[in-house]
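Lab channel / #folding
Pinned by the channel admin:
"Please post every new chain as: sequence first, then the structure tokens as a reply. Keep commentary short and put observations after the output so the thread stays searchable."

First post following the new format, from NK:
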Amino acid sequence: MRDRVKKNWLFAILAFFILTIASPPFLEVYQLGNSPLFIGMLAVICLITLLFKDFLITFPLYLISYIILLYNYFPLGHSFSLEWFTALVDEVTLSYNQILSGELSYMPQTIALVIILFFLIALAVLMIHYERPWLSYLLIVGYQLLLVAFNQLELSGSLLLITCTALLFHQLKKLPDTISRSRRSQSFVLSMMVFALLAGAAYSFQQLFPQARSFLFIQTDSIRDYFNQLGLYQHIAQYGQSGLSKSGFSEDDQQLGGPLLDDAAVVFTAYQQDPHYWRIETKDTYTGKGWENSNSSLHFIGNQDTLILEDVGYSGPLGPEAVIRLAFTDAVSYLPQPYGRVQLPLNGIGGAEEISEKNRINLKEAPKEFQLYWQELAYEEDDLQNVLLSDYSFYSDDWQIAAESGVTSQYFELPTSVSDRTITLANELTHNETSLYGKVKAVEQYLKTNEEFRYSKTDTTYPASDQDYVEHFLFDSKVGYCDNFSTAMVVLLRAQGIPSRWAKGFAPGEVTGEQDGLLEYTIRNSHAHSWPEVYFEGYGWIPFEPTPSFDNPDTPAEPAVESVDSSETLESSTIASSNEVNDSSSSANTSESSSVEKTESSSTEWRSLLKWSSSFIGILLAVIGALFLRKNYFLLRYRLYRRIKPNDFNNTYLLILRQAEKQYTRAANEPLARYAQHFEDDNPRFDGSFIALTKIYEESLYGKQQMDRRKWRPLLDQTAEILAVRPKKN
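Reply from TO:
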């Protein structure tokens, strides 16, 4: 024991350091808390592994540590007793059965902690007993890279420390056993200094070049998006980090930003002929952090048979009337409104409430199913291009005129948090455009097509407490979802004196069937969305779509350069609309929708990446296996031969002799006894065992003496074990 402790105590310290760095991310994800007892348990595990090698001793000690820590985290309302242990076993068994049956689609805390404790013990044994730092390193880093890929934690510092410690471990392992204590200490200190400098340089690099840190996030964006659509992040969040927003419509938009978890729960189903964006409400006041309404007055509507909803600013023609039927999964109070003229029969609904400042309708009795009649606004893109860029400054003298036209001062206002560089950017984007429509499209296309901006729900960050939300998105993170893109467009347009506002609701959803000649669109929480609206005189508030991969069917498409058969155009439009699948949006309120094209692309990229990742992992495992086999080939062959022919001493000795000759060359015609002496002179670690075996072999071969198995069997095993470990070179 003393020799083992003397040899491996430094490895035990480094192993403890690595495990201490590696374990907190797991505890944070499952909200278990990095308690002093957990750190103490890691120290005990490393100490047990250092002091004892016999499984009959280490197993009960590991088990006691295991049970004490489990009780610390899961007392289950019991004192530390057999009753508590029985309750814990029942809890773990129940959770396990629920996972197998599909009742649970996430990893419960109890099972997760049981698994991670076993994993940590295995790592300690690998690093201290077997001195395998790189295998342990690959396992730890692989696990932490999964957390980085999910982007729930920032682990660059942790990975850096683990890498440097593994390198130090490797460097110390290479030192020969015969080196003096003073030289070993000098090597340790020098290695520490070198790796500290490397760690400092790597940390400084990522601070000086922050764009390098986002490389992994960019490369794995499609994977995270795919898992988010499957609902994986939502399941992780149930026992993971708190504070992550979930997709769906919510009332509070005062604080936007941060990652968003998809929720695939169905909100309502729409039976209709054409897809629509479903507007719930609009907001007029940007605060620098989110959206509010300047005023909010409730007006009850109940003394009429039909509620007519239309934009007072629109004076153009209308399309034919169509029926839309809505069926809600759970009763909701708000009315999803398609763009156009809407007639809603109030019979059986019990009246409605209107909040005119928010363009919102609340249904009094929150019916689960009703129908409305819709007429399309019949205008084309050319009509908008002909709208003059109005000067709204005169409204400051007479806001009554502005109110009658649907434009009030709130649609121009910006908070003081909007910086000069945001206003400068707005000027640069629009200075070559002379028309209102041209300026609006210039801003929209900048956000929608600029490769500097990246759409991601999982990588979106919060701005600093003293930083403007749009400023952070446009110039710092450049990563976001619909809330970021739509808010940025409104701010940039208002900076140019163009009246605009923020709308929220749901994207069209996905086609899931057909009924009575109408297409069935399923709208989920993950289809919640936000977008900007811009005021065009004579046409009212027109929706636009700056978010990449999204197309608003209620915005007129750009005219085709060449004439196309109308039936082909309709078919193309129908296919494009039907292929839309929506994503999620806002931090505690809206979520976005993505198209099937993006979903299929993400899925294809994910499958391709999974294929190459699997191939890489397979090759890596094959290489590790080959290296292990190459290093342990002799010992494996020896043990196999001994198991097959346990009494064949002569051939077993010849197997050992051939291995010895690979390490120390035997001269031609050199007698075995002399070679054995030379071999042991060069390899004193055998302590006479090889000479003794050679003597027994010669006596057996030439003297025909009966050999004592009790004597040569342990000598064979001892010599083979030593031969399997190549001597370290000074």
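NK: DSSP finds 23 helices and 20 strands in the chain.
TO: also worth noting, The radius of gyration is 36 Å.
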